[in-house]
Amino acid sequence: MTEATIPLDVTPIPLPAAAPDDVRVWLVHIDLTAPLDGAYFAVMHASERARAARFLRHADAARFATVRCALRYMLAAETGADGASLVLDAGEKGRPFLAHPDAPDFNVSHSGAHGLIAISRGRRVGADIEEVPQAFRWRELAPAVLTDADRRAIDALPGDAAQSGAFFDCWTAKEAVLKAHGDGIGGGAISMNGFSVLPRDGVRYAVTQSAGAFDAISLAAPSGYAAALAWSL
Q1: What GO biological process, any one, is recorded here (predicted)?
Q2: Handedness of CA 23, 29, 34, 39 (dihedral sign)
């Protein structure tokens, strides 16, 4: 199977020159009403089907299943293996990996009607996409997310809409870094407010050394979403 034959709505995201050549990212378009008995869902493992069945809302099940199937198809194209036979496992802190000889690193994210898949054979990668709610009270989360440098950069922007957008840009960048690191946002060795990513120079974030040796960029996202990619140096 090649990328061109993947039976799901997956679009490659062009990356800027700041991104390493070995990193690739795709946007997954999710039909939240799709029945999970479609032919393209046959690639899922039984444990993944069971996990999808545990979701109370069909939209949540469709979101998980679509991105997981897209990941299997992408990894099959990358490795030449059958997507249904790939063994996806998780490390001690829950970070997924492919148990396959010479396996690439990957990371996924999904929110609303879209998902991200990042793959690299040269380094660890992290990806995050977030649907930005209208009138979201982001200031209540600011102490847990922002450093003083992040807050100053956001406060310097004119108007609440710009500040709210910058907060979500900051959030996605930090989550992408933490996912590349392997900790996620659940209280690992570093926390969201333990490193800065702002100010941003164009698409490139200013990731401070307290996060480790990582870089991050913003990604072009559908309207109403924010997205970011991070990678190890």
Answers
A1: lysine biosynthetic process via aminoadipic acid
A2: negative
